[in-house]
Write a structure and sequence with these properties.
The chain is mainly beta. Helix content is 6%, strand content 41%. Strand 10 and strand 11 form a beta hairpin. The longest helix is centred in the N-terminal third of the chain and has 8 residues.
């Protein structure tokens, strides 16, 4: 619904069951940035170029897309949610599934995913498409379209979003396992949810537009955990990326809306993704 506010899909796992019974979809906008990060737990850190440092394999952002895409061929699925939604007292849940194919060093990697933002009724679908390519040393770019084909009657999406992102892994800071970079950053520009504020933001005097520019910084604190700081174009957030048991499971836990630039209160959030099958080139 056009009157529904945009929000960041965040919410710790303990709210999963109450969110699953929500009748409407309130979490599409901000969570779909996380869909672009699903590949973090699947990426190699040394794609045949051991003199180049890539980001570690732990989640590096929760609310913004990355210049890094996938590597190889796989299918994936996951779930995420937030509590509480901006200007509301309820939680929300979203599920997603997709596939990835291609070598971003030799050509490009292509990722496509489908989102279901009405999990209890299996409805309100939308799609995402991302193309990524490694460029100069320790860097990658991506272009993407998010929230494609969303039903405007029941979705809080401000139309589809297109974006461009650049990411770089600092080459002088080795990770704890000496195979990747300890510090990476992303900067990008986009339309839609990076730029258009929700109707509720407008009604509450927070303006009609965000910055249209997003950025993030990720630092490895443990071999299995990153601390992330990110600006979504609408607000500031921080998150933890966790990779337990050295498995390809990606877990993100965070809090956003830390400023009064948009929304009415901070939101707790989570995202979990896992490859259903995997074939690496």
């Amino acid at each position: 619904m056009n009157c529904m506010l945009k929000k960041y899909l965040r919410f710790f796992l303990v709210f999963f069951f109450c969110a699953a019974y929500a009748d409407a979809a309130f979490g599409q906008n901000e969570f779909e940035a996380e869909l672009q990060k699903k590949t973090d737990s699947l990426m190699y850190t040394d794609h045949g170029a051991r003199d180049v440092l890539y980001p570690n394999s732990v989640l590096q952002s929760l609310t913004i897309p990355s210049g890094w895409g996938g590597y190889g061929t796989y299918v994936f699925g996951g779930i995420g949610g937030d509590y509480r939604q901006p200007y509301r007292q309820t939680a929300d849940l979203i599920s997603f599934a997709g596939f990835c194919i291609g070598n971003p060093q030799k050509f490009v990697n292509l990722a496509f995913s489908i989102n279901n933002t009405d999990v209890s009724n299996i409805g309100n679908f939308s799609g995402n498409l991302t193309i990524s390519r490694h460029v100069f040393t320790g860097s990658s770019i991506s272009v993407g379209a998010l929230q494609m084909f969303a039903d405007r009657r029941i979705s809080d999406s401000p139309g589809y979003t297109v974006y461009f992102a650049f990411s770089h892994a600092i080459q002088s800071l080795l990770s704890l396992d000496q195979r990747s970079s300890k510090l990476s950053y992303t900067v990008g520009i986009g339309t839609g949810r990076f730029y258009k504020k929700s109707p509720m933001d407008v009604l509450n005097g927070k303006g009609k537009y965000g910055t249209g520019i997003f950025a993030g910084l990720s630092y490895e604190t443990l071999k299995w955990m990153n601390v992330n700081l990110e600006w979504s174009g609408m607000n500031l957030g921080c998150s933890l990326g966790i990779k337990p048991l050295n498995a390809p499971l990606a877990i993100g836990l965070g809090i956003t809306n830390l400023t009064r630039y948009s929304a009415d209160k901070p939101n707790l959030s989570f995202a979990v993704s896992y490859p259903l099958s995997l074939k690496r080139n």
